[in-house]
Amino acid sequence: MFAYLLKRLLATIPVMGVVALFVFSLLYIAPGDPAAVIAGDIATEEDIARIRAKLGLDQPYLVRFGGWLWALAHGDLGVSIFTNLPVAQLIAQRIEPTLALTLCTLLVTVAVAVPLGVLAAARAGSWIDRCVMGFAVLGFSVPVFVLAYLLIMLFASHLGWLPVQGYRSIAEGFWPWLQHLILPSIALGTVYVALIARITRATMLDVLAQDYIRTAQAKGLATDEVLYGHALKNAAVPIVTVIGIGIALLISGVVVTETVFAIPGIGRLTVDAILRRDYPIIQAVTLLFSGAYVLVNLAVDLSYTLLDPRIRY
Amino acid sequence: MGHAMRLPLRALALATFAAGFAISALLAPGEAAAQKTIKFIPEADLRSLDPIWTTAYITRNHGYMVYDTLFATDAKFQVQPQMVDKWELSADKLSYTFTLRDGLKFHDGQPVRSADCIASIQRWAKRDVLGQKLGDLTESWTAVNDKTFRLKLKQPFAYVLEALGKPSSNVPFILPERLAKTDAFTQVSDPTGSGPFKMVKEQWVPGSKVVYVKNTDYVPRKEAPSWAAGGKVVKVDRVEWLYIPDSATAAAAINSGEVDWWQQMPPDLIPVLSKNKDIRIENTDPLGSTGMIRFNHLQPPFNNQKLRQALLHVVNQQDYAIGIAGDPKNGHPCASFFTCGTPLANQAGSAVLSGKRDFDKAKALIREAGYKGEKIVVLDATDQPIVHPQALITTEMLRKLGLNVELQAGDWGTLITRRSSKEPVDKGGWSIFHTWWVGPDLATPALNSALRGAGEKAWFGWPNDPAMEKLRDEWFAAPDLATQKKLAEQMQLRAWETVPYIPTAMFIIPTAYRSSLTGILVSPMNLMWNVGKK
To answer: CB neighbours of A59 closer than 8 A, spacing ≥ 6?
Structure first.
């Protein structure tokens, strides 16, 4: 197990290296020039050229890439071209809202989606099943931002129960913190609920058709025991896999959700950086997301051993 | 099964809330002292703190919060002393002596000295268009003592005070000498100034929040505020700039009272917010902004003057006004190369743009120009609500004229990079792009960079017009306003002939604020002193 873990962790290094190469190269060839953005509309070409030189953007590809890699190897993510603040500091400022939003969304979605999927499978063909599947189709179909606006309109503007926008750190109190996360989590989580509920239902239907389930039922076990004690446990591996894959979905959703709800998280940091071509931030955040995705996949793989004793590494 | 599921969930919810409130009690800060705080949604995200390094208007507005200026322009376009107490001009008009007011202090407690002012002006003069002109004519800056300094000119220059009181980017703000000594092309990130607000940099979250507190050491002038001139009396303890990029969310936030003031609201949201009796929607920008069609004068087909002239006969400013502002109340035609409502605005030759639109005449000019179907590339920035409608209207107009036009859509970051290309359109070049300028930036020949004809050294589009440059030089040497106006008319007549660009429309972007706010100043810049909160 330890050897497997070590092997997987070591394997992330070349993966991250390839990501770094791709990100840097894509940004290098993409149109856009931060010096032009900085200089503004009134600036002359000479001004822009001087700013470009000051920022080192006039250096050849290999020099810039090498410099960035060298700094990265020393734990230096660079300095934002625009704010002149260290990228590590900017990410540190933004990590809490994004983590809070992601975790809240994950908790809410798993807590809602898995029971819904199990229920739909247990009552396959009934009106409950149709309702759950109808909700799943709706959840997939409604874009995150549309749902976000509807939630804002109803719960913030009309009823005044929850704030429209912003984020409060948990250090400012639990309720203000939670209050600012409820609507974004619902908006972001709905598509995720739809995905997991569908997968749970499909997997559960497969498992419920197995002989050992019929045996369990014949033995007179209670329905809950059959569903949760036997069927769900055996259906868990594909469900957990989808939850892991869904993290990527969540990351892209975070960008939209943070923009609509004006949450100062990593997603907004990324979008803002892309729009103004703040290369050090884009590079660092892409690496961060890639690293997170690789680690989530590793965690999912490791969780298989807990869910299915037959799996050993 | 349902019942079995409900119980643990309820228990879990109760446990979560109990834990939450316990954590809350432990972590929540004590009750904050009663502070008057204005929550304000700015026009853009504050990315850079250095208003000399960048011309971004948001950084200029930040500059007005934390810095002060030697002079400032008032609502009557008169330059008034601001940090300066008194000034003298020598009889030969070559020497200005400035004396600072008493009690001027930087946020770090250090007094404002002559050396700070000289270093700041010298840095500004390396970047600003009017500053560069002043720099070219400067013999020396000398500190007579800590409060008095002198400017010696190589030749008389009538616009020294106008330059030092320039209201829009780049504004000659005064920084401490230690910061002002920074290279003009390197960003200063320490916001220490001597202005009426102090920035709380530790609470700055780029892309989200900027916090300012009242500078209790600031000594305002006694005069009433007028644009950036007069007394800068701060009436609140704290101002928070909350950047909300999504306009629907911003509208909901001001509607619910989460924020007090939204600097620039899209016109399509006026009907929504005007239903709320606690919200006022007003125009606080007396000059508005002006859109423009900018041509590439180096490449075909708009290197042909006749083709540029042809468009003058079909551009309908009313279409652009509606396209940009959405509502005729917030946009109107302005057929002048100088901002309408300012002293140099005039109607010389304007009939070509304000008269009846004439497609036949335009088509005749296109034929005379010998247009051979060369491709016209119009750059569009779909993320810019002022640029995008202009690009669409122009493209449609060119199609109606039977021209071979291609609209190339991207974002603003791409547009401002691509527009620096002097290549032909098949090698990544361009034919037309659109932009807009705030009123003060087009008010005089000194500031209107788009009007210049300095060829390859001119602003993007690179018109080459030595006659225009000569008129500009004559304007600089003009001894009085009457002569300046006359020269401005001549420059405008010349511009209708050579068409360096076409002004599309004047527009204002309304501001929305809660009725609890008082004293919002009418000014082309967003200024936050004098604003109180009930």
So the answer is: A67
